[in-house]
Automatic annotation (TrEMBL):
Residues annotated as the enzyme's active site: 44 (proton acceptor), 111 (for glutaminase activity), 147 (nucleophile)
The CN hydrolase domain, residue ranges: 3-243
SUPFAM superfamilies in UniProt: Adenine nucleotide alpha hydrolases-like, Carbon-nitrogen hydrolase
Pathway in which this enzyme or protein is active: Cofactor biosynthesis; NAD(+) biosynthesis; NAD(+) from deamido-NAD(+) (L-Gln route): step 1/1
Molecular function terms from GO: ATP binding; glutaminase activity; NAD+ synthase (glutamine-hydrolyzing) activity; NAD+ synthase activity
Binding site for L-glutamine: 173, 179
Binding site for deamido-NAD(+): 374, 403, 514
Protein name as catalogued: Glutamine-dependent NAD(+) synthetase
Residues binding ATP: 291-298, 398
EC nos: 6.3.5.1
Cellular component GO terms, alphabetical: cytoplasm
Length: 545
């Protein structure tokens, strides 16, 4: 016998239970009629979208979920549907996977392992399940598991002990650079432990800072990957299982298409595009406006914006001042022309002069310092926000992780905006991403990539006047932020001098207040600024003590 399973790798809108329910119905019908599937499997918490966060605390959640389940039971026929949702049982809220067939809820499994680290807060909302979930589908005993369950041996071993011959794992596993390889290693380990095939169905889409890249896949009882759905593409992806009672492994998946692997720059770029597209679309912005400086960060941000929503919905604004070089003016115009966006030049000299004239009495007796530089950035921020308010466009900020880490940014200036695609991208990776984007089509002038970075807020200014070289800075930041290494551990590598390490770490710590006021942005690494890293603004911790 052949059992065909469709993996529904879909993009849901968090909180829109009614629309998400209809999407499940439509996908189930399509899986049955077009894919000829016997079973369709949806990701974790599909009905609410993921992550629902404190929407799970809303008083009407229970009635909405019950209404959704009733609709699924009434309207889906002739295909087994495995779907994730939250449900209250005997007063406790569980993260559930239900199996629906011919108007019946055949079995309901509650997630056992609740992650409570990095971006996860499951224990804030859910109670732990304790029992295996097993259902008979066309004579095959199918064990259920949900996301974190697969990262631990006990739930899968429990399902095997209960008689499972195949494991379905429902996921909402967020993206970071190394995650794709980690999942494959993990499923190889779990499959070989229980000698069962595993179907891993992952969420696709973006929610605020989190990106879910899909990439659903199947391993056989030996842990070998035999089918791989595409990354960053929603859709239904089917695989056949041969069911043969005479074989040691009763259920054997048939080898299918394995989507090609993505290199680091390719998967990071796709994550940025998806994160921005979903943020703009789901929040119903008309378009994007950003400041185009002629520098590398705004050039990359502009390319991502165009790839996300199209050139016709993107506007670039060059806001030159006294220190803006002719090179920057030329390069910004070339970038806009190459990408085909609307481009405007709005000089800010008169606006900055108006601010300084009004402030002159307050500044009397004080020497010029970064205050005057920051006025330029804040004037640009005011300009962009005015355009945003008038046109309904969202301001896309362009600061990268290296700058945000050490506070090399101006509050209410270049930090103004609604979203940032570079928030979790170190400057050294920005250069690589520009090179990668140009392999898809030349849109970032070579000079933008090769010239020394500068904020151009003072004569002949360069970033390295204020910061270590980005090669050094980013390596220190990676060890401190992403690996939680101490100053002494970083110094023990003998790569950096003590003064530089202490200065960088101190800058990271004292600029927490700025990062708290920065817009959300795409999470790229396993330790981004946002949900991953939560440090107090006010504290007495001193580096080196």
């Amino acid at each position: 016998m052949t059992l065909r399973i469709a993996m529904a790798q879909l993009d849901m809108l968090v909180g829109d239970i009614t629309k998400n329910t209809q999407s499940v119905i439509d996908a189930a019908n399509k899986a049955r009629d077009e894919e000829c599937a016997d079973v369709v499997v949806f990701p974790e918490l599909t009905l609410t979208g993921y992550p629902p966060e404190d929407l799970l605390l809303r008083s009407s959640l229970d009635t909405r979920i019950e209404s959704s389940l009733a609709k699924l039971l009434a309207e889906i026929h002739d295909i087994y549907v495995v779907v994730g949702y939250p449900r209250r049982i005997d007063g406790e809220l569980f993260n559930c996977a239900g199996v629906i067939y011919q108007g019946q809820l055949l079995v309901e499994y509650a997630k056992q392992k609740l992650p409570n680290f990095l971006v996860f807060d499951d224990k804030r909302y859910f109670s732990e399940g304790r029992e295996a979930g097993l259902v008979d589908i066309k004579g095959v005993k199918v064990g259920l598991s949900i996301c974190e369950d697969i990262w631990h041996p006990e739930p899968i071993a429990q399902a095997k002990a209960a008689g499972a011959e195949l494991i379905l794992n429902l996921n909402a596993s967020p993206y970071h650079i190394e995650k794709m390889g980690e999942r494959e290693e993990l499923l190889h380990q779990r499959a070989t432990e229980v000698t069962l095939p595993i179907v891993y169905v992952n969420y696709m889409g973006a929610q605020d800072e989190l990106v879910y890249e899909g990439g659903s896949f199947v391993v056989n009882a030996k842990g070998e990957k035999i089918m791989q759905a595409p990354w960053f593409e929603a859709g239904l992806y089917s695989i056949d299982m041969i069911v043969d009672e005479s074989q040691p492994n009763k259920v054997e998946p048939v080898a299918g298409v394995i989507a090609p692997a993505l290199g680091v720059e390719a998967n990071v770029y796709q994550a940025m595009v998806l994160g921005l597209r979903d943020y703009i679309t789901k929040n119903r912005f008309k378009g994007i406006v950003l400041g185009l400086s002629g520098g590398i960060d705004s050039a990359l941000s502009l390319a991502v914006a165009v790839d996300a929503i199209g050139a016709d919905r993107v506007q670039a604004i060059m806001m030159p001042y006294t220190y803006t070089s002719s090179i920057s003016l030329h390069d910004a115009e070339e970038e806009a022309n190459l990408l085909g966006v609307k481009y405007s030049v709005l000089p800010i000299e008169s606006m900055v002069s108006a601010f300084t004239d009004v402030l002159a009495p307050e500044f009397e007796g004080y020497a010029k310092d970064t205050t005057e530089e920051n006025l330029q950035a804040r004037t640009r921020g005011v300009t962009l926000m005015a355009i945003s308010n008038k046109k309904g466009y969202m301001v896309l900020t362009t600061g990268n992780k290296s700058e945000m880490a050490v506070g090399y940014a101006t509050l209410y200036g270049d930090m103004v905006g609604g979203y940032s695609v570079l928030k979790d991208v170190f400057k050294t990776l920005v250069f690589k991403l520009c090179r990668y984007r140009n392999t898809l089509g030349y849109v970032i002038p070579e000079r933008v990539i090769t010239r020394p970075p500068s904020a151009e807020l003072a004569p002949d200014q360069k970033d390295e006047d204020s910061l270590p070289s980005y090669d050094i800075l980013d390596e220190i930041l990676r060890m401190y932020i992403e690996e939680d290494q101490s100053a002494e551990a970083i110094l023990a590598t003998k790569k950096f001098d003590r003064e530089t390490v202490y200065r960088v770490l101190r800058l990271v710590d004292v600029n927490e207040y700025k990062r708290r006021q920065a817009p959300t942005g795409v999470r790229i690494t396993a330790r981004g600024f946002g949900r991953d890293r939560r440090y107090p603004i006010t504290n007495g911790w001193h580096i080196g003590e």
